Structure formats: C-alpha cells, structure tokens
Amino acid sequence: MADMQAVRTGPALYNPARSKAGAGWVRWLFIAVALGFLGLFLIIPLLAVFSEALKKGADVYFASLLETDALSAIKLTLITAAVAVPLNLVFGVAAAWAITKFSFRGKNLLITLIDLPFSVSPVISGLIFVLLFGAQGVFGPLLEAYDMKIVFAVPGIILATVFITTPFVARELIPIMQAQGTEEEEAARTLGANGWQTFFRITLPNVKWGLLYGVILCNARAMGEFGAVSVVSGHIRGMTNTIPLHVEILYNEYNFTAAFAVASLLAILALITLVLKSVVEWKTTRHETK
User: Fold this and answer.
1) Is 19 helix (H, G, I), strand (E, B) or coil?
2) What's the confidence (pLDDT) of residue 39?
3) Residue 133, exposed/middle/buried by CB under 10 A (0-12, 13-18, 19+)?
C-alpha cells in the first residue's frame, strides 16, 4: 500500500512542465551573461577603437596610417609574420607527424618543449634572447667579432616571434593526426608508396583544414605579439618597432588618434582571424561528418 501511495504522489513531486520552465530560465540567464560579457569586453572596446580612430575624420585616420614610422612598423610586422609563420608551419607539420606516426626515445620531451612557450611569460622569453645574444650575453662577444647584431635588430624580433608562436601549428595537428590513426599510411606503404608519397597524398590532405586553422592562429599571434618583441626590439623608432610597439609609443606621447588608428589595423586583423577561424571550423566539421 505504501508503494502504491508513493507511485501516486511521485508525479506530484516531479512536475515536468515546472522543470522545463526552470531549465529554460537558467538557459536564458546563461545566454544573457555570455552576451553581456562579450559586449563588455569585446564589442564595446572594439567600437571604442574605431570610434577614437575616426574621431578627427578619415583624412587624419589615413594620414596616421601612412606616416613614415607607421609604415615602417607595418612593414616590419609583415616581414616578421612572413618569416615566422612558414618556419612554424614546417616545424609544426614535422613535429606532429613524428609524434603521432612514430615511436622514438624522447617523444614526451619533444611534446613538453613544444608547450614551453605557453608556460613561459613572453617577457621572460625576450629576456632569455637578450641574455643569449646581447652585447653582454653568452654569444655576444662572438657576434660582435663577426659584426652581427641580433638583439635590438630585426633578427631578434623574428627569433622571439618564432619562439612565441611555435606551439600553434603543432598543437592543432597533433590531436587530429592521433584521431586519424595510422591505418591509411600503413595501407599506402603496403601498396608500395614511399614516405613522401604517403605524406603528400594521404597525411597532408587529411589534415589540411586543421593545418590552415593553426596557420591562421599562428599568424594572428605573430602580428600581435608584444611582450617578447618589446624586450628584444630596443624600441628604435622607424627601425625595430612593430605595430603593437608603435601603438604604445603613440599612446605614451598622447597622440591618441594616431594610436587608435594604427591599433585599428590589429582590430581588423582580429576580425578577419575570427571569420577565417569560423570558416575553417565549419569546413572541418563538414569533413569529419562525411
């Protein structure tokens, strides 16, 4: 009798309609919080950048971008990204292929080293390069003897950027290659394909969208890097300033319009990166569902 009474009273204790209404209320609350967070920390600052950049009109905006030091900073940023991204592309593909397709001594050490730039502050990374290649550094006397300059010059900026952006391509490819396994490569080798044929015809086509995703993130970080580059650049105006460093100098000089105008280039880069990232994620999802 007690069991029958519990069955009768059970539905009264659990109301599906009330539970569904409560879940809907919680869902909309979390959506509102997320949208509010995005608006406060993403959309409003983005609008503020463009608002300040165009505050004195389009003529002043474009004049700030075409100023000699600004053009030099843009050029150096593009050169740095043009060197750092391909280097990390080659390294990332090679490292991911080695880690996921082969067994060798030191694999865990390699994985740890790939993650090292994520765990070390960019400022500390730049300081390490100064201690290695600066005038009083480990290799300083040797570089001075051959009249070579790395720190406070373009090579130091490129080295620091390469180090900071090392994990992006590799870390994007490793889980994709691990999920795919080695069956297709083994089948290709059984049919007589050599290593390069297997890589270009089997491995690379299967990871092309993940590879593009990693390259996009790597390029965005290369162009927007501040901490490590700030340490090794020397802040030589018109020579070793990238876009972020040039923005800092303009802002410290109270030239706010020019600072926000140049900063808007990085904001545009961020928006383009988000769009490309979304497209690549959509392509990757479609590829995985086929």
Assistant:
1) helix
2) 84
3) buried
pLDDT tens per residue across span 175-210 = 988 888 778 877 877 877 777 888 888 888 888 888
Q: Are 99 and 174 in contact (CB under 8 A)?
A: yes
Q: What is the rounded distance in angstroms from the CA atom of residue 24 to the CA atom of residue 20?
A: 6
Q: Write down the residue that tokens 């180090």 correspond to.
A: 163
Per-residue confidence (pLDDT) for residue 136, from 0 to 100: 85
Structure tokens belonging to residue 166? 């090392």
The tokens for 14 are: 């659990």
How far, in Å, CA of 144 to CA of 135, rounded? 7
Give the pLDDT confidence score for residue 38 in this predicted structure.
81
CA 245 to chain centre: 18
- Any idea what the Cα angle at residue 205 is, between residues 212 and 85, rounded to 5°? 30
What count of Cα atoms within 13 Å lies in the side-chain half-sphere of residue 134?
12
pLDDT of residue 282: 79
Tokens of 56: 């004195």
Max CA-CA distance within the chain?
98
CA 106 vs CA 102, 171, 172: distances in Å: 11, 17, 20
Please give the pLDDT value at position 6.
47
Q: How many other CB atoms are found less than 10 A from the CB of residue 242? A: 27
Comparing C-alpha atoms, which of 253, 256, 247, 172 is closest to residue 214?
172
pTM of the model: 0.82
Of all residues in the chain, what percent carry a pLDDT higher than 70?
90
CA 116 from chain center: how many Å? 15
DSSP letter for each residue of 155-183: HHHHHHHHHHTTHHHHHHHHHHHHHH-SH
